[in-house]
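INTERNAL AUDIT FORM
Audit reference: QA-55
Scope: verify that the stored structure record matches its stored sequence.
Auditor: D.O.
Record contents follow.
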Amino acid sequence: MNPARIAVAALNASPLPLDLELVKDHLGVDGSDQDDQIERYILAAIRWAEGTMRRTIYAREHTWVLREFPPCSPQEIHLPRGKTQSVDAIAYSVGGSVTTLTGPSSSPEGTGWQEDLRGEDGGVIMPTRGSSWPSTDLDVPSPVVITFTAGWLADEIPDDIIHALLFAVSDAFDTRGSADLTVFGKNFDTRESLISRYRLKRWY
C-alpha cells in the first residue's frame, strides 16, 4: 500500500472539545478574563497530543489519498489515526472517471467492502469475499480516496490522555510570555509518559 497524503478536519473551537470549566479548575483560575487565552491553549494542547501520538483524539472526518489499492494478498487496508468510528466512502479513478463505493458503516449502508472497526489503533477494510480491489488510474492526482471518521467519542477518551491535555494546557499557561522557545514546561515528561502507550507506529 502506498499512501500519498491525509487531511484531518479542523477541531471545533465552538463548542470546545475539552470542557473549559474542567481546565480552569485544573489551572486554579476563577473568572472569565483569561478564557480566550485558555481556549487557544486547549486547541494547541490537542494538536500537540495528536501530533505526538500520530492519532486523532476527538472524532472527526479524515480524507486519505492512496496511490493505489494493495496490489496483492493480503489486501487489508489498515486505516490510520487511531479508533475508526465509520468508513463513509471509497472513491477511485478508473478510465478517467470516479467510482464511489459505500460499506457497512456508511450512511446509507452499502456492500462495497468488508470492515472491522473494533480495534483502538484503527479499523481494517478488505474487498468483499471472493473479490479483489479494482485496478485504478495511476496518472491522476487522487487515484484512491478513503473518507472515514477517526478518533474517540468525547465520553470514550482515555483518562490518561485527558490528564496529558490538562498538563499541556498548564505548561502553556505557566510559561506564557516566555521568550525561551526551548521551554517545554515542568509537566512535559509527565504528559509524554501519559500518552506514550497510545503512540501509533505508522507515520501516516
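Auditor finding: record pair retrieved intact. The radius of gyration is 20 Å.
Action required: none
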